[in-house]
């Protein structure tokens, strides 16, 4: 089993056009990775790529529907061809289709499961080939405190709980090949997705944020950069004995 790797490793971050994904892509570039910035629309990735290149990093925008097998395979192949074999994967892509269960449609349930859970599976399956060949790799899945249950999010909560099970299983299967797999589960983070949730509940985002902050022990909402810091820890060389773990980054105890 090889223990050598290229000078600049290659990372893929899905859902990286904005929010947590964008912050994570920028952080990993600062850590020395060449970063493939994946999102549904490649043009939407331009600001993230520009932010990385402005600081002297290397980035590639890739459009990809992570719920589609053919497109994930093609995206990973393109990254390997243009940046190099990817050995770090951050599965962050996600959507919300909130509704109470008696109103939730099949499509609302399936689409959320498809992007979050199926997408993480498809991307992990494609990338692990490069990781196992290199004898080194890191996968970080983005779960959520909603995995513990959240009103109006039967689809999202199910997907995020499923990601925790996927994390532990992949850690067992890929560990012998030098690959660690961990999970970051954010609490309340100020992103476009939480703004959409605020709109759904009929309050302003400021009111929504203040309400959550009062219930958080550190008395503030989270920022995308808070999550990027946690991902940065999991993918570093020194974290090689940490695998199969779920880290709640929520300003207080969860789980």
Describe this structure in words.
The chain is α/β, with parallel strands linked by helices and 255 residues long. The protein folds into two domains: 10-187 and 224-248, NAD(P)-binding Rossmann-like Domain (Rossmann fold); 188-221, no CATH class. It is 46% helix and 16% strand. It has eight helices and seven strands; from the N terminus they run βαβαβαβαβαβαααβ. A seven-stranded parallel β-sheet has the order 3-2-1-4-5-6-7, sandwiched between helices. α1 (19-30) links the parallel β1 (10-14) and β2. α1 crosses α8, α3 packs parallel to α4 and α4 (106-134) packs parallel to α5 (154-174). The longest helix is centred in the middle third of the chain and has 29 residues, at 106-134. The protein starts with 9 loop residues before the first strand and ends in a 6-residue tail after the last strand.
Based on secondary structure, the structural category is alpha/beta
Count of strand segments: 7
CATH superfamily heading of the largest domain: NAD(P)-binding Rossmann-like Domain
Regions with little confidence, pLDDT below 50 for 5+ residues: 1-6
General shape? globular
Please count the helical segments: 8
Strand content: 15-25%
- Walk across the major sheet and give the strand order: 3-2-1-4-5-6-7
N/C terminus separation: 36 Å
Instruction: Identify the CATH architecture of the largest domain.
Output: 3-Layer(aba) Sandwich
In the CATH hierarchy, the third-tier topology of the largest domain is known as Rossmann fold
Q: Let me know the largest β-sheet.
A: 7 strands, parallel
- Count the domains: 2
Oligomer: single chain
């Amino acid at each position: 089993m090889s223990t050598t790797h290229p000078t600049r490793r290659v990372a893929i971050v899905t859902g990286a056009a904005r929010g947590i994904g964008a912050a994570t892509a920028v952080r990993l570039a600062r850590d020395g990775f060449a970063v493939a910035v994946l999102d549904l629309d490649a043009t939407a990735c331009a600001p993230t790529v520009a932010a990385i290149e402005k600081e002297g990093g290397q980035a590639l925008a890739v459009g990809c529907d992570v719920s589609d097998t053919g497109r994930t395979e093609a995206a990973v192949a393109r990254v390997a061809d243009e940046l190099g074999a990817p050995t770090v994967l951050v599965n962050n892509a996600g959507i919300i289709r909130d509704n109470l269960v008696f109103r939730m449609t099949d499509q609302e349930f399936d689409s959320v499961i498809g992007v979050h859970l199926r997408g993480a599976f498809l991307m992990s399956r494609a990338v692990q080939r490069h990781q196992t060949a290199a004898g080194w790799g890191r996968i970080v899945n983005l779960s959520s405190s909603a995995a513990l249950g959240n009103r109006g999010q039967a689809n999202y909560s199910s997907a995020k709980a499923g990601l925790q099970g996927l994390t532990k299983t992949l850690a067992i299967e890929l560990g012998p090949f030098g690959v660690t797999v961990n999970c970051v589960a954010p609490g309340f983070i100020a992103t476009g997705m939480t703004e959409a949730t605020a709109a759904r509940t009929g309050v302003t985002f400021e009111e929504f944020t203040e309400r959550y902050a009062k219930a958080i022990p550190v008395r503030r909402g989270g920022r995308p950069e808070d999550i990027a810091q946690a991902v940065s820890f999991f993918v570093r060389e020194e974290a090689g004995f940490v695998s199969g773990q779920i880290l709640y980054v929520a300003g207080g105890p969860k789980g």
